Amino acid sequence: MCLPAIVLALAVWSSAPDLSGPMPARPDEVCVVCYGTVGSSGIAYLLNGVRYAVSKEEAPLFLSDPQGYAKRFDEHQRPRMSMLIWSGGLSAFAVALIVAAVRKRRTRQSTG
Ligand SMILES: [Zn+2]
């Protein structure tokens, strides 16, 4: 028995990403490498249970550093979501301001 080898193998195994696939992706899924749609030749991988789509020609790039690409992709997607929430909140605020201004004008006109 060579214990260090077993320990090393276990360490490598436990730190290796849990990657499964490829499986066919929907054409409208966002590519993890270039953030475009993957198109009809797109494929998808499951990394630690999370699905990532990639263009077929960029799959080798993704597979060279799946965790790196997945991390960058997640960070790329997140600000977009908060931006949507922000712009939604801002437009609601703008509408409220306009409604308030219109109401003020109306009351002014009716009183005099
Ligand atoms: Zn791509």
Characteristics:
elongated, 3 helices, three-stranded antiparallel β-sheet, binds zinc ion, alpha+beta, 112 residues
What would your notes on this structure say?
The chain is 58% helix and 14% strand. The chain is α+β, with helices and mostly antiparallel strands. A three-stranded antiparallel sheet has the order 1-2-3, covered by helices on one side. Strand 2 (43-47) and strand 3 (50-54) form a beta hairpin. The chain starts with a helix and ends with a helix. The mean pLDDT is 87. It binds zinc ion. The site of zinc ion has 6 residues, from loops.
Q: Which ligands are bound? A: zinc ion
Low-confidence segments, ≥5 residues, pLDDT <50? none
How many distinct domains?
1
Total count of strands: 3
The outline comes out as elongated
Strand order of the largest sheet: 1-2-3
Distance between the termini: 98 Å
Order of helical and strand elements = HEEEHH
Structural class designation:
alpha+beta
Summarize model confidence as the mean pLDDT.
Answer: 87
Radius of gyration: 25 Å
* Main pleated sheet: 3 strands, antiparallel
Structure annotation, total helices = 3
Strand content: 5-15%
Helix amount: 55-70%
